[in-house]
Automatic annotation (TrEMBL):
GO terms for molecular function: calcium ion binding. Residues 10-45, 46-81 form the EF-hand domain. This is EF-hand domain-containing protein. SUPFAM superfamilies: EF-hand. It comes from the Bacteria. It comes from Brumicola blandensis.
Length: 82
């Protein structure tokens, strides 16, 4: 039942900043190692075993990287929201 939440440009810019922050090697994609760091910061309670599962869930096209679009979708879903 979740509505497709519209993000404002300002929100997208914020998310972009986070994405760039966690994209340590600045290749425009978040790999599994970068994702682990991200989770450590955003969601410290995540169990190690769930990391790969979570990564696979976000990596919609299954290429082994999270690109900004996939990251944005994940964000919109509010997976980590408190
Ligand atoms: Ca990267
Ligand atoms: Ca991907």
């Amino acid at each position: 039942m979740s509505q497709d939440k519209k993000l404002t440009d300002a929100q997208i810019a914020e998310i972009r900043k986070d994405f760039d922050f966690f994209d340590r090697d600045l290749n425009g994609q978040i790999d599994l190692h970068e994702f682990i760091e991200l989770l450590t910061v955003l969601s410290p309670k995540t169990k190690a075993g769930n990391v790969q599962e979570g990564f696979a869930m976000i990596d919609e096209n299954g290429d082994g990287f999270i690109d900004f679009e996939e990251f944005l979708d994940w964000w919109k879903d509010g997976w980590w929201e408190y």
